[in-house]
Amino acid sequence: MPSSAHPVPPAPNGASGVTAVRSTWPGANGPPVIGPPPRLSATRPLTPAASYGAWQGVLRPPPFVVTQGPPRPTYREPLPVRSPKVTAGAAAGAAWMLLFGLLATSARGYIWLTLIAGVVAWAASFILARFGDRGVAVGVAVSSGIAVAIGGIVVAYRLAGGDWLLW
Hints:
The chain is mainly α. It has four helices and two strands, in the order ββαααα. The protein has helices at residues 48-51, 83-103, 107-131, 134-160; strands spanning 6-7, 21-22. α2 packs antiparallel against α3, α2 runs parallel beside α4 and α3 (107-131) packs antiparallel against α4 (134-160). The longest helix is centred in the last third of the chain and has 27 residues, at 134-160.
């Protein structure tokens, strides 16, 4: 018996006196087998694009194929948000908040005027977003939100010192 073959134990009840020899598994005895395992199924037929090496995602219909019906419509946003309009809205919102901030004579007055101006600016931003230009609405909302956040920082700073500014 060759050294690479493994004997299989005899069949039960002595049914067969012949000892079967199992072939070796690849890599089990001897050098390791390098590469992918062998295919167990038949190979698939090549697509037309694969036969000449093109990636199959770039297949287009041949030029003689006539499309069915009119081309599909392209839907575009009627009022797209552009950066110049957002910048204009941010400048308008910053001017609005600055105007109210300059009217204040104390920190308590600044906070209350900032909150009132912020609520009015957010209402204007909502109306602009619903019926007007959404780019300007975004700018107004962002700048008034930053101003109200600065007011909140002032309240938190004074609260850390033991002074509640809102009452």
